[in-house]
Design a protein that fits this description.
A hairpin with a 2-residue loop joins strand 1 and strand 2. The radius of gyration is 19 Å and the shape is globular. It is 31% helix and 23% strand. The strands form 3 sheets. Strands 5-6-7-8-9-10-11-12 form an 8-stranded parallel sheet. The chain is an alpha/beta fold. Its cofactor is Mg(2+). This is Dipeptide epimerase.
Length: 327
């Protein structure tokens, strides 16, 4: 029976604004891929990311371009060769996983060996701002056990101090989004170590991070923009201590599983992260993150409203998805 694909753009308002070193946004723009086969339906959500040259129209077109091949029965393995890593492939891949689960009655969690499922503790992200504003954000969320703090500017030592003083009981991840330089990274790392920071994400621009091989890592350093797929990892040995796996970067759960497994083989720590999207985008990542060292799947917590039904969050704890949502 032929499969039928549909593609839809949706927008969800963010609670306030979400700010990183590259800019701010007030809504999450997502694309939903739906694949139907007979009475069964599978869905996948992706978030186009400008940093990688993606936009809503381009991702929509890339999914539409796969219409005939999806109708013809292309599988997830074939999809890896047919499309590059990125948001479009992620939406299709996750829709295929969901569809397969609905047809066979086998949950995705069981298919990937992620059972028994457990509730996860996710980081909660604080937007970049002036030190006083970031301290206020940290103070308001000081009850959360893990905070992810967006930094990436000339005043980062003051920002780090402000946040750690405002939330002294929280473990903290710093995410510089490629915003540090060769001139300030050693000083920033040393201060982060003094403040007992747990992890630092992508301090330097991808492709200009060679200095990481030659300086001390008093705090573990995690690759984000520098790593997309498993094939990227060999060149990261000696530069980074961990990798942040995002489905939109890897191009779906299939590729993300391969990336996670290869990362473990090479001795990297694993973070499973996300773009700002809804529970539909987080659901497959929750399954991927069952054995992760760090979990950053707070996208729905940053929205003014999530889709219904969504994931269940209790504080910083996120429960596995109900099959009605995905998988």
């Amino acid at each position: 029976m032929a499969r039928v694909i549909s593609v839809e753009a949706e927008r969800f308002p963010i609670a306030g604004a979400f700010t990183i070193s590259r800019g701010s946004k007030t809504e999450a723009e997502v694309i939903i891929c739906t694949i139907r086969q007979g009475s069964h339906t599978g869905r996948g959500e992706c978030v186009p990311y400008k940093r990688y040259g993606e936009n809503m129209d381009g991702v929509h077109a890339a999914i539409e371009a796969m219409r005939e091949r999806i109708a013809g029965g292309i599988d997830r393995v074939g999809l890896l060769d047919a499309m590059p890593a990125g948001a479009a492939r992620n939406a299709i891949d996750c829709a295929l996983w969901d569809l397969e689960a609905k047809i066979t009655g086998t949950p995705v969690a069981r298919a990937i060996g992620a059972v028994p499922l457990r509730t996860l503790e996710t980081a909660y992200t604080l937007s970049l701002g002036e030190p006083e504003a970031m301290a206020a954000q940290a103070r308001a969320n000081a009850m959360r056990p893990l905070l992810k703090v967006k930094i990436g500017g000339d005043n980062d030592i003051a920002r780090i101090r402000a946040v750690t003083e405002a939330a002294p009981q929280s473990r903290i991840i710093l995410d510089a989004n490629e915003g540090w330089t060769d001139d300030n990274i050693v000083e920033n790392l040393a201060f982060a170590a003094e403040q007992r920071i747990a992890l630092i994400e992508q301090p330097l621009p991808a492709g200009r991070d060679g200095i990481l091989r030659h300086i001390a890592h008093p705090v573990p350093i995690c690759a984000d923009e520098s790593v997309h797929e498993a094939k990227d990892l060999a060149s990261m040995v000696g530069l980074y201590d961990a990798v942040n796996i995002k489905l939109d970067k890897a191009g779906g759960l299939t590729a993300a599983l391969a990336l996670r497994n290869r990362a473990r083989e090479l001795g990297f720590g694993v973070m499973v992260g996300c773009m700002v999207g809804t529970s539909l985008a987080m659901a497959p990542a929750v399954l991927l993150a069952q054995d992760a060292d760090f979990v950053d799947l707070d996208g729905p917590l940053l929205l003014a409203r999530d889709r219904v039904p969504g994931l269940v969050y209790q504080g910083s704890l996120v429960s596995p998805p109900d099959p009605v949502l995905w998988g």
